[in-house]
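Weekly structure sync, notes
Attendees: PL, DS, HV (note-taker this week)

Item 1: Protein pelota homolog
DS walked through the input record. Source organism listed as Lingula anatina. Sequence as pasted into the shared doc:
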Amino acid sequence: MYYINLLSNTCRSVTLIPEEAEDMWHAYNLVSIGDTVRSTTIRKVQTESATGSVASNKVRTTLTISVENIDFDTQACVLRVKGRNIQENQYVKMGAYHTLDLEMNRKFQLAKHYWDIVALERIEMACDPTQHADLAAVVMQEGLAHICLVTSAMTLVRAKIETSIPRKRKGMCGQHDKGITKFYDQIIQAIQRHVNFDVVKCVLIASPGFLKDQFIDYMFTQALKLDIKILLENKSKFLAVHSSSGHKHALKEVLSDPAVTCRLSDTKASGEVKALDDFYQMLQNDPNRAFYGIRHVEMANEQQAIETLLISDELFRSQVVATRQRYVQLVESVRENGGEVKVFSSLHVSGEQLGQLSGVAAILRFPISDDISEDEASSSDED
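Item 1 (cont.): predicted structure, written out as tokens:
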């Protein structure tokens, strides 16, 4: 997804173009009851001729509606937004109901009275490919390497490294070894510069022959020698695979390899899955450091005890503005207190599991006693 105009203090609207299925999910999470949506649509219009005969035909027009109902069809990947027309139009009266079908590659404008931090982060995540490029790849051969970020829709080449490496000659291997070392060092620097390990879950190192293995051995030897912590801490994310060359097009064959596909399946959600596993482990071993349900979690937050907040994106789609704001304020407060926030997709299995725990849970820094009665907690969660 990308946006055409930026949000500012004077502009409360943004124009978006969804480019893939995941973008439609982002749009579903962005549009709320009471928002204003403007898009092109097809409207059935009846016209009366001079003789009194009535003809019915379909016309394409642009409508602006105040949203009253939202429906997302996950199979067709269409977001249906229903509401009243709020701008003069030659075909549709003011106040008349209409349903806009928001689809991929169809531009629409979204306006809100107030853009909270969750909505702004959702736009940033959807529109910045590096935010959801959770796979990186280095495709290499002697003297040529491409450092790429891979999303579900595109491959971004962040760096291309070309260097001349002298050939091996009998009794004179020194120049070749120096050239290879310099080449490897440039790739290591590019990985450090372009790969965000907070987002990227796997880094493929692909090459013909044994070059990939030699490079990985050299990289981690240097990381130990120079104490490059970012590489050492993420060693498990590197995966050596075969490619026919160091050109970008070789990445396609790498990603279609069944062994690689199995390893990379659902890398994006692995961080959320691990957080949920950590929560269940804590709930079993130290229940006073694992809270769930909004009242329990809010109580823990009041004591600045939350280390990791787990929250379902479904809670931000509440039709009650005060309820949505309650969860938004919780997210902001946890971050202000130095806690980590993980927003789970309710379409993913981990999000469904979190939904069974009321959609909000927290791993605490230290144990605290549970002073809330069961009745109070359950009635609060129902609210």
